[in-house]
Design goal:
Blueprint: E1 2-4, E2 7-9, H1 11-42, H2 49-63, H3 66-75, H4 80-97, H5 105-114, H6 116-119, E3 124-132, H7 135-146, H8 151-158, E4 169-174, H9 180-188, E5 198-200, E6 203-213, H10 220-250, H11 256-267
Antiparallel strand pairs: 1-2, 3-4, 3-6, 5-6
Helix pairs in contact: 1-4, 2-3, 2-4, 5-10
């Protein structure tokens, strides 16, 4: 496979190293995936790109947008492709096991009443800003904006805040998320209005309000299907462990890696070695 100063690294050495670095768990995962695929085929379950994409879109909403989801993926060492593969598996398991679940209207109503506060959404503002250290800098930038300069371009060029890379965009935020001076201005402005320089402990902000969402308080009917899906997912999660265990128990599985490890373990033990006590 390779050589270093004439010393060969053989295919067997590479194979053994790969196994030691996680080959056993990787093969075990592959066996599990094959069992799930076979179970899906037996149940006539198929997964479409639309199924997977719908789940991804739902996750984006839960995380507060695509950017927030991508950030969470990066922090966990995952890519979007990894997420799609995992999502496909979860959707497949759900479709197989969902016929075994039962969610009543009473359970949905109870869940809604117990979690009503989590469904309400307070009013939110979306804004961009340019942050600089001095009033003189802020006044000069405001003058450029009044003369027609592009806000996002100036934010990228002159803002000292990390949001500069996004043209100053801070996304949506609610009351209590920003410093008081910034929040008061942002919530009182009209959409597309640009503020005068606002002083805070961080410096001077020039704010552009770009969007607004009213507070929402959804009814049971509004959330009924969302809650039903959530409760079905909970039941599927409870069923899946036993179901996977049963799949393994009823399948004919040959795992040569485990056989090799067992053989190597046996060979490493000296059958003539005895323990004596005085």
């Amino acid at each position: 496979m390779a050589s270093v100063n004439g010393t060969k690294i053989t295919k067997d050495e590479l194979y053994n190293e790969l196994v030691a670095l996680g080959g056993t768990s990787t093969l075990d995962n592959m066996i599990t995936m094959e069992l799930i695929d076979q179970a899906a085929a037996d149940a006539n379950v198929t997964i479409t790109d639309e199924d997977v994409n719908a789940e991804i879109e739902s996750l984006k909403t839960q995380f507060g947008g695509e950017e927030a989801l991508n950030s969470a993926l990066a922090q966990s060492g995952m890519t979007l492709d990894d997420l799609k593969k995992n999502t496909e598996i979860q959707v497949k398991i759900r479709k197989i096991l969902e016929p075994q679940t039962k969610v009543t209207d009473e359970e949905i109503s109870t869940y809604y009443e117990e979690n009503k506060d989590t469904f309400a959404t307070p009013e939110q503002v979306r804004a961009s800003h340019i942050l600089v250290e001095t009033k003189e800098e802020a006044d000069a930038i405001k003058k450029e904006l009044d003369e027609g300069a592009d806000f996002a371009t100036l934010a990228k060029e002159k803002s000292t805040d990390s949001s500069a890379a996004n043209g100053g965009d801070l996304g949506f935020f609610g009351k209590g998320d920003m410093v008081e001076e910034f929040e008061k201005a942002a919530f009182s402005m009209e959409i597309n209005e640009i503020s005068e320089p606002i002083k805070s402990d961080y410096g001077y902000h020039i704010i552009k309000k770009t969007d607004y969402k009213e507070a929402t308080d959804p009814t049971l009917e509004d959330k009924k299907e969302e809650i039903r899906k959530l409760l079905v997912d909970q039941q599927v999660s409870e069923l899946s462990s036993t179901w996977l265990s049963d799949l393994r128990s009823n399948a004919k599985i040959t795992n040569k890696l485990e056989e090799e490890e067992t053989t190597q373990s046996t060979e490493s033990t000296d059958p003539t070695e005895t323990t004596t006590t005085e």
